[in-house]
Amino acid sequence: MAARAAGFLVQRAGPEDAPAIADLWFRHLAETSGGIDPSFTPALTPQKTTARLKRALAAGSLLGWIARAEGQSRLQLAGYLTARIQVEDPLFGDSFEYEPVMYIVDVDVEQAFRRRGLSSLLMEHASEHARRQRIGTLELAVVVRDDRAVAAWRKQGFEPRVAVMRRAVGRR
């Protein structure tokens, strides 16, 4: 079901949207790579990423919402959000009680559409889906060195739960 708000049309993503999602993801990655954390280097090509997204969206293991500015073609995205339902804690497995969460895998907004509330609008659609599924929590990961992203997610009510820390030991 599509919904119009704030000059955008938001609808559920399907396998046919995978090429446009992958394209925006790679363009956003090129914009941020190196400056935040060099360990985030894609291991997949755009074609393999597209194929993986198509399979996951078709199987329902990945949920997605796409947004277009009114008048844009379906191939042009203003932004997207992908998510999955997690029933086990990704860090601790079944060691602790764990209520299912909707894990926000990725949110990207085309540079021309930033600062217009689009990520919040996409998050509203994901939140509503979670509520309908009786899932009471959204979760996401953010690179702590990305001050802009940390501030944006805090503004939307996200708070840290666990900090994953790392230390290089070198390679032999």
Describe the fold and architecture.
There is one protein chain. This protein is an alpha+beta fold. The chain has one domain: Aminopeptidase. The protein contains 4 helices and 6 strands. The protein has helices at 18-32, 46-59, 118-132, 147-155, and strands at 3-5, 8-12, 63-69, 79-86, 101-109, 138-140. A 6-stranded mixed β-sheet has the order 1-2-3-4-5-6. Helix 3 (118-132) links the parallel strand 5 and strand 6 (138-140). The termini are far apart. The model has no long low-confidence stretch (mean pLDDT 87).
Q: How large is the radius of gyration?
A: 17 Å
Query: What strand line-up does the widest sheet have?
Result: 1-2-3-4-5-6
Low-confidence stretches: none
Care to count the β-strands?
6
Helix content: 25-40%
The level 1 CATH classification is Alpha Beta
Largest sheet: 6 strands, mixed
**Inertia-based shape:** globular
Give a concise summary.
This protein has 172 residues and is of the alpha+beta class.
